[in-house]
Amino acid sequence: MRNRQMPTRTASFTKRISANGQALHRAMARRIATEGADAAPSAAEAALIEERRLLKKERDKRKARALLPGPSALDRLVRTHHPEAKAKPKASKEAHEAKKPKPRRTRAEKHAEKTAALEAARRPSKKPAK
User: Fold this and answer.
1) DSSP secondary structure string, 49-114?
2) Do residues 52 and 21 lie in contact, with contact meaning Cβ atoms separated by under 8 Å?
3) Which of 50, 85, 91, 109 has a CA that sits 20 to 30 A from residue 36's CA?
4) What is the pTM of this model?
5) Residue 10 in contact with residue 59, Cβ under 8 Å?
6) Chain segment 61-105, per-residue pLDDT in tens
7) Do residues 13 and 66 make contact, with C-beta atoms less than 8 angstroms apart?
8) CA distance 4 to 50
9) pLDDT at residue 24, rounded to an integer
10) Where is the segment annotated Disordered (predicted)?
């Protein structure tokens, strides 16, 4: 039998019941051909019968659940697909004031520094007289 961890898709029940029925028919025909019609079903045949019973029971349960009323348009409208935002802990004023922004130079300061560097590079450096 299959592992029952994952939910079984409803659409696959018809094919699975059909495949189980074919396997059960082959097992019964094999038993009748070898041991006769009066012999008791084998363990494999009993397992197939049990699996078929469970499949039909699960199919009926799914069909009954499908007949129940689903969510209304209002329920769908109210329901949100996005989780609620988590509340962030508020930082104290002291911690906020303690943070200092990085010192950043303005565009004018950067240009002035660059111009000064270019001027210094153009002027020949005077060597001290000996």
Assistant:
1) HHHHHHHHHHHHHHHHHHHS----HHHHHH--SSPPPPPPPPPPHHHHHH--PPP---HHHHHHHH
2) yes
3) 50
4) 0.47
5) yes
6) 988 988 888 878 777 777 666 666 777 777 666 666 767 777 888
7) no
8) 15
9) 95
10) 59-130
